[in-house]
Amino acid sequence: MCCTANEVLMRHGIPTAGGFTNQELGIMTGLIDALSVDVQCIMPAITEISKKFHTKIITTSPKAMIQGAVHIEHDEHHPKKTAEEILKLACDNFRNRKKTGSHISDKFPLIGGFSDEYIEYMQGGKWRGSYRPLNDAIMAGRIRGVVGLAGCDNPRVPSTGLHQYLALELIKNDVLIVSTGCGSAACGTAGFLTPETALEMSGPGLREVCEAIGIPPILHLGACVDNSRILTIATNMAKEGGLSDEIAGMPAVGIAPEWMSEKAIAIGCYFAASGVPVIFGGESPVGASQEVTRIMTEVWMERYMGALHFEPDPEKILAMALNYIDGARERLKLRKYEPGKFGAERVLMDMAARRELEKVATPHAGVGGSHDPDA
Ligand code: SF4
User: Which end of the chain is more exposed for a tag (fewer CB within 10 A), N or C?
Assistant: First the structure.
């Protein structure tokens, strides 16, 4: 569970059992013999609740020891030895398990493990991988923009619900999503992380591009600490050309609708400092100061083209994100996004129709062609 599990999923393909809010619920099944934690988000009452069941809580990092837990320090030079020690403790504790059976009632297939390198590979293969198809699709208006949908699931809101609402509305609006953190589990349980289900719900332009490349419209990039991968993707888009020359000014927005961890704030700040407008859900922890709020929004926007907003209303979060994307498109003089323009029913075209299409949608036909979508 949580982002440590996202990392294990990303690197080894091992299924995750959910996000941050599932930790206590997992223990309450009575079926968990050992729960090992590192430095990612850990519910503070986890050792207390484990006392009511047989679960052993094991801490592995000297930075995050918890009273009431067993500490088995992770030895970076001998990781297998640490793992074996934890496994042995879990096996020994099995005899104390009173519950039988399984509480897994639903399983959700998902495709995760996208990295900036793999996204490049998907767009052209080993020898011709590039970000050109993505940039071209954004320039032509097939893809309206990109949103990094990241962060925690939070029991103070309808947990996982805000992620699912925003993910669905954004893909309907032809916005490609790169997702990290516990919110990715929310997208997975909604069935949004497989091309088969998610493309049905996507806008026609986004769908067309994702079908051509062979990717889902929501790309699960890993743990919340892997948000740097999102910025690497934005950097690759800038290097590829045709959009903004740097991260700042891209038709891209970061959203953490259910954030609860300080780590999320730190990540939001480096996104804003890199030139990405960021919208957090919930009330602002610094909302009492108009001056701080002005600095985080207007001043940062003026200086870095990034900003940090707090907005509890998910519909307003959506509107703000689309507004930022459309504003960036306008500044970059990209084709105005028109919903439903692309992806109409496919027809067999004659040459005249193909020439027309060429004018509209083939921005760099031929060797040395222009990247201007109007070319
Ligand atoms: S910061 Fe948020 S997204 Fe990351 S592990 Fe913690 S709860 Fe999950």
Answer: C
CATH topology for the 2-96 domain: Rossmann fold (3.40.50)
Distance CA 341, CA 138 (A): 13
Write down the pTM of the prediction.
0.87
Distance in angstroms (rounded) separating the CA atoms of residues 361 and 136: 9
Question: Which ligand 1 atom is nearest residue 180's CA?
Answer: 3
Q: Show the ligand 1 pocket: residues with CB < 6 angstroms.
A: 2-3, 19-20, 40-41, 151-152, 181-182, 224, 261, 263-264
SS percent in the chain: helix, strand, coil, step 5: 45, 10, 45
- Cα(159)–Cα(164) distance, rounded to whole angstroms? 10
Q: What is the mean pLDDT of the chain?
A: 90
What atom of ligand 1 comes closest to residue 152's alpha carbon? 2
Give residue 344's pLDDT.
Answer: 58
Assign domain 116-331 to a CATH class. alpha beta
Nearest atom in ligand 1 to 4's CA:
5
